Amino acid sequence: MSRFFHSFNGRMILAVVGIHLLLVPVLLFGIYRVIKPSLEAQFVNYVRSDALLFSNLVTPRLQHSKAGELQGLLGEFLLNGRLAFAEIATERGNIRADIELNAQQQFQEDFFFGEHDDDIYFLAVPILNPEDGSLAMLRLGYDERQIQRDIATIYQRSAYFVAVYMGLTLLVVGLFGRKLVMPLERLRDEAEQIAAGNHTGQFNSGTKITEVAALAEHLEKMRQALLSARDAALQAAGAKSEFLANMSHEIRTPMNGIIGMIGLALRTDLTPQQREFLGMANSSADALLRIVNDILDFSKIEARKLELDHAPFKVRESLGDTLKLLAGHAHEKDLELMLRIDPETPDDLLGDVGRLNQVIINLVGNAIKFTQHGEIVVQVKPESVDENKVCLQIAVSDTGIGISPDKQQLIFEAFAQIDASSTRKFGGTGLGLSISSRLVELMGGHLSLESEEHKGSTFFFTAVFDRHTKSEADAPFQPLIDVKNLPVLIVDDNAINLRVFSEILNHWGMRPTTVDSGEAAITALKSMAETGEAYALILLDAMMPIMDGFMVAQAIREDQRFEPVTIMMLSSADRPDDCERCHDLGINLYVRKPVKHSELWNAIQSALGKSAKAAEAALTVLAEPPRKLRILLAEDNPVNQYMAVVLLEERGHTVKVANNGQEVLDILATDILFDLILMDVQMPVMDGFQATEAIRASERETGKHMRIIAMTAHALKGDRERCLAVGMDDYIAKPVQEQDLLAMVECWNMAGTEQADKHSMASALLAEPALDWQQALSRVRGRQQMLCKMMTLFQEQSAPLLNDMADAIQRQDAELLRLSAHTLKSSANSIGAFPFGKIAQQLETMGHEAAFTDAAASYELLQQASIRLEPAIQEYLHEFQE
């Protein structure tokens, strides 16, 4: 209803009704002022005429003194309908009608002209008696209410007329308004379609109303201008994307050479000063690469081209690894870096953990940059949790310089710093927080800030993730050591650290006791000894005032009252002699802060078990390639050529170099015995795309397939798809890291024609640890001798089964392939060789389906996994069989 009265028709109708409501009182007043006097004058004339007529009728009867006849005559007068009173006054007395009178009021005096009283108009007419010349008076009283009834009738008829007139007017106005509004609504609908992105329609009002037609014409001109602006914007966006791609290539290509050559130089014999200089150069190159990546990320976000991944991850493990990367910078400034995750936080989620870590790295990196002393705390807790989704609330707090209220909103804008001195003192592009804010919005959250100058800042943000339903393979294994109800003493001078470790240990079912100094720790140990009990484990902070962790450990080892207790030293410093001091004092484990949940768990299990390995992840080492490759490298940059040739030839591969795509075609015209081509995308004469298209065109005639890996500095969305679309088999982005390059090249060292996704999966499998002995040991409830025996049996049976599989593939014996692969899969999973088991399972499926197309390639991949697995098994057997 409100919408109607705000419309054109509604407003028109309201105007018409208002006008008529104003006219009605004017009409009634006009009736009162004009019609009523006219009716009254007409009435007076009428009654005077009647009175004269009646007097003429009465006069003849007076002369004969016929009183009875006069009474009858007066009665007839009263039957007139208008008369209410009639009598004749004579000298002999008054003669009245022979019927009852309606008015009883008597005349005061005779008069000719009448007077009004009680709705009766009185009139006296003198009559001369012709018989004796005496004067009589005919008195008449007329009823005036008829006049009032006539006026009321006129009022009523006027009201009917006004109502009919108003109705007809409203109908005409409604039809006219609709006729005018319909083309306007049509123009509105057309405008909405254009606003929704449908630019094919045209503005056409469909009416001959001049003003509306002119409006439609102007709107059509605006639509044409909009189309022109859109086309110009799309062209500009395309030019921007092309510029970003070219800029990315032009910057990343020399960066690839700089980083690669520095890496090669660091592997040579250098003086300490040279190593220091090269290390600084390497750090600067990494910083420059981060700036380039920030600019590209910002451009993707601005163009709405940035998409988030949707993959499973573990919150505690991921954030723990991220803070480990930043711990070194924090410890260099003697800052305490802590991670506190609420025990109720779900651990298995689905989302883009890379972008989540990017936000964390930016916020924590800024906190480290602007904090000179104190602590930095990352806190994670669930804001809302249901069966399908979880909303995490993450806060990064510091004790740094803080931000004034008038600058707090500025820092979220692109290329913004608090002031110019911040850029000079702390560096940075001013893009980090802007990118982080946009990433948080893409994750369904919001980034906000609370800060006070000289007291620190806290950045809050929320992020929404899907819950990950774990499979049977993801199910947790039983711990080697049961830690429930174990008493643990936590010694740390930082209250937040005490709270974090206490929450974690309580969540695991342990009984933690917290103290904030070395002296309090000794007191707690004495109190426990007096009760006849002892702590099973001490978590001891190395950096404490007055009495540090090493002094506490020494006091514990020297005091005979304390039973031997497992001590785990936690340190935020990275001093080179700490490990040696721990060994001298009999400290069981030395762990650097911040401590991941899994790292703390494994460290506790290792420290209490006294036979497990230290919980430090070893670097993944690429296995020796099973076959040396002949590689054709297409690269126009001499530095990149040299770096790639050195890296590949160190692995034993043979490399031939072409400076452009045309040289690639010339070389292939005389020599086709290459295993693969590393093809740079942007080269002079003929680029990588053109060369690939030419190679694929010739292969359609020969039926062969040369493996081509794109090597490009382009880093925008769609670049990989473009490479695959022209016929390239895979894609690696510059600057190329050594392990990435070798993993990509050597995962192609297999027969068959696998698709790109299978090669990516193979690369991922070969990057996993070959042997997860901890999971295998937990499956046999910590019985190491049993696991050693199982590994020995696996070694004895794997070689014959591999031979059976090779024979089955050659003879295409599906049943033999299935049985051999099934046995190897089961045995490998039992000893913790999960990458080996996954490949064996693929071969088992191929045997079950009798699909031998990719069997040879998978078998070669299984051989590579076997080569990686053998030294890992030997290392475990050597350590635990001693």
TrEMBL record:
> Which UniProt keywords are listed?
ATP-binding, Cell membrane, Kinase, Membrane, Nucleotide-binding, Phosphoprotein, Transferase, Transmembrane, Transmembrane helix, Two-component regulatory system
Residue intervals of the HAMP domain: 178-231
**Boundaries of each Response regulatory domain copy?**
487-608, 630-749
UniProt domain HPt: residue ranges: 783-876
Where it sits in the cell: the answer is:
Cell membrane
Phosphohistidine-modified residues are: H822
The UniProt entry, under CDD domains, shows: HATPase_EvgS-ArcB-TorS-like (cd16922), HisKA (cd00082), REC_hyHK_CKI1_RcsC-like (cd17546)
Which Gene3D superfamilies does the UniProt record give? 1.10.287.130, 3.40.50.2300, 6.10.340.10, Histidine kinase-like ATPase, C-terminal domain (3.30.565.10), HPT domain (1.20.120.160)
| Coiled coil, from the record | none
- What's the catalysed reaction? ATP + protein L-histidine = ADP + protein N-phospho-L-histidine
Does the record bear RNA-binding in its keywords? no
4-aspartylphosphate: residues carrying this PTM: D541, D680
Q: Where is the Histidine kinase domain?
A: 246-467
Q: EC number(s) of the enzyme? A: 2.7.13.3
Q: How does it sit in the membrane?
A: Multi-pass membrane protein
* Transmembrane portions of the chain: 12-32, 159-177
Domain of life, per lineage: Bacteria
Main localization category: membrane
Question: What is the recorded name of this protein?
Answer: histidine kinase
Species, as recorded: Methylomonas defluvii
